[in-house]
Structure formats: C-alpha cells, structure tokens
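Minutes, methods subgroup
Present: GH (chair), OT, SY

1. OT presented the first of two proteins processed in the latest run. Sequence and structure tokens recorded below as shown on screen.
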Amino acid sequence: MKTFRASIDVMPHDNLLDPQGKAVSNSMANLNLAEISGVRIGKHITLQVEAKDKQTAEAKVDEACKKLLANLVMEKYSFSVTEG
C-alpha cells in the first residue's frame, strides 16, 4: 500500500447565493480595498489515503466528497491526489 495526499476544494455552486462571501465582499470598501469584489468562500480540505495506486486513491477521495465532504445540492468540489 502507498500513501497519497489529497487536496480538496469545496465551493458553493456559482448560481447560489454565498452570504458569507457577499459580506466579505461588501466589507472590502471599508478596508480601502474597493477594487476587490465577487468574493466566494468555501472549504479547503487535505487528507491522506492508503491505497494500492493513484486511481484507487482518487476513487476513495471522490467517494468521500460525494458522501460526506460536499453537499452536492449546494456545493461543487474538485481535488488533486499526489503520492507521498
């Protein structure tokens, strides 16, 4: 078995309101950062997977995202898997 490291990003779907992102976006002007807008806030997750190969590790990470890490009704996810 090999150890793989997964890096996962979970974000709200583009067509859904992101109240946290909107609040941060609206606050930028108060911080003299008015040129920053369109803030979207999500989650970044890292984890380790024990698997025989990269393809198996990717399948396990995908399953974890679908079953637990992302709410597929409201969120999308992407990930990368590297050995080590």
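2. SY then presented the second protein from the same run.
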Amino acid sequence: MQNTIVKTLIYDKQVRLFIVDNTKLLNDILSLNKETNKILKLTLGKTISVVSLMSATLKGDQRISLQMTMSDPQYKVFADADAKGNVCGYLNEALLEATDEISLERLIGHKGTIRVIKGAGFNQFTGITDMPYRNIVDDISHYFIQSEQIQTYIGENIEFAHDNRILCSHALYAELLPGAPTELIHQVEHTVNMNWDFLKYNKDNIKEKLSRLFKDVKVIGYSPVQFFCGCSKEMFYGMLHSLSANELEQVIHNKESIDTACQICGRTYYFHYNEIQGLL
C-alpha cells in the first residue's frame, strides 16, 4: 500500500490518526536531484513526507503550501499538496548549490521559520512560526499547535540505502479531537516512538497492526498521494518576456533556441527561434 494514506480513529474516536508509506513518492521526487547530498535529501524528504500527510486533512479545492526558510534566508524549501493527494516539493537554487554537508540542525539554525498557506481561493489562512526543534517534523507539529491551536503529533521515519536512495519512509499524523484529554497525544507519541519498526506495514494488515498498539481502531478511509507538477510549455512563455528585445533578436538572427527548465520536476522546454519571433 505504498503512497496510500490510511485514515483512522483511535481511542474511542478521540484521536484522528493517519499513517502513510510514502517511500515511492519521496524517491520519485528526490530522483530529480540526483546530485544532492544526503543532508539535503533528508531535508526535502522530511518536508515532503509530512506535507503529503497533510493532504488527507484537506477538502474540495483546498491546498496546503509550506515554505521553510533557514537561518540563512537565501536557503529555502518548498512543498505543496492538494486534497487529491497531488504533492510536489523542491529546494531552491541557493540550497541546491550549497556544498557544505552540515547537520540538519545547523542548516536550520536558530532563526529558521515555517510559513504555511492553507485553504482555497479567497478563503486562505497564512501562519508563520519559528523552528525551535530544528528537525522539521517537530517544528511542523509546533506550527499546528501555535497557529491552529490543534494538539498534534507528527512522526516520521526515513531510512537511506547505501547509495543515498530512500530505502523506506513512513509518516504518521495524530490529532486530538474536541474534548479529548491532552495526555492521549503524548501516549500516541510514546507508542509510535517505541514501535516504528512494527508500523512498517507493506505486507500486513494495517488495522491489525494498529490495533495491537492503540485502542478502538476504526479505519475511516484511504487517500492516495502522488508526485504531480502542473507545469507546461505555455507557462514558460512569460519567462521569455523577461529577455530584452535585443536578446530575442540575437537568438532569432543566429537561428538558436532557448531552453527553460522547471525547478520542481526538472522537465525542460525548448523554444525554437521560429516560436520566439512571435514575441517581438
């Protein structure tokens, strides 16, 4: 059940709990940046893993967009998901070009921030929080507690193969429902931290596994997650307008082409000089 979020209620419907094996999703996205070092893969992987789970909390046309800015403000991470489970994420160019393989904690630093936009159309909410834990996962939990006043626990476990490919990735989201005692969220956190290996559910029934760890497990649905980038050649025509008339005329005169690349998926779009003539 890779790339499928299992949505459950536990503890007599007092806690909403989602769990996902998103190994394929992360490898699909991280394969676009093959030269990225392990720390940057971990940074992007953690961010995408958590945001993919957030897609299951959305409805209709809602989407969630997360921007994480490190203490060095030129370093940024972006991730986005919609209610259909379409997920994308990327590191900005400055971070991709960073050569120092420092720890994630040092990369985030003491001034890291998380900015989240959630909603649809004109009905969107923006929240900004700091990153006191410097590990992404706990910092996003901190965001929900601070900005949305929701008692939340997010767990995530990523394991790398020797070639820095993601060997496996699992994530879990737990949220207290109204009236539930706060200690339940701490109980979920403790149980998950002690049983990550047990929760790897590739072959076994997830309800049976969860029932061995939590009380009153009820599966209420499933949601797919998948990598999706909505870029198109038409979207990049606007970038050509940023070139001066002289530059465009030079391309046409030399019968050259201009190639542009999507920062999210890496897809390249080529513009033949005949196409560029229409811009003048």
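Chair's summary of item 2: The two ends are 52 Å apart (CA to CA).
Next meeting: continue with the remaining queue.
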